[in-house]
Design a protein that fits this description.
Distance between the termini: 5 Å
Protein name: Flavodoxin domain-containing protein
Radius of gyration: 13 Å
Structural class: alpha/beta
Strand order of the largest sheet: 2-1-3-4-5
Order of helices and strands: EHEEHEHEH
Number of strands: 5
GO molecular function, one term: oxidoreductase activity, acting on NAD(P)H
Domain Flavodoxin-like: 4-135
Pfam families: Flavodoxin_1
Largest sheet: 5 strands, parallel
Amino acid sequence: MGKVAVVYWSGTGNTQAMAEAVAQAADGALFTAAEFGPENLAEYDAIAFGCPSMGSEELEDSEFLPMFESVKGQLADKKVALFGSYGWGDGEWMRNWEADCVAAGISLACDSVICQEAPDDETLNALAALGRTLAA
């Protein structure tokens, strides 16, 4: 089993709840976006990134996006998964984020998990499966 990091940014607590579910299932280390950077990458075989949709369906750009941009080029040999919550829209921010990952040579280990507002039981089960996939 590989070491898993779960890195997230949360404004309302919904994405934090999602991150905690992934970390618990993966027996992983939990980091906020401000606590994680390129210096942490060598320690982990797999990383789950969680960020809610902000503004016009974008990643949070003061802490999360700069951190993600700083590590993105070094993720090609890692197992990576994405998750996040949204308040409106249809998940376009996640599709854009997935496309950005593919363009950067990042292979996603499993389907991304998104939910509207707080995660329900079905979402929590999907997050646990995501965590187990990364830990395997």
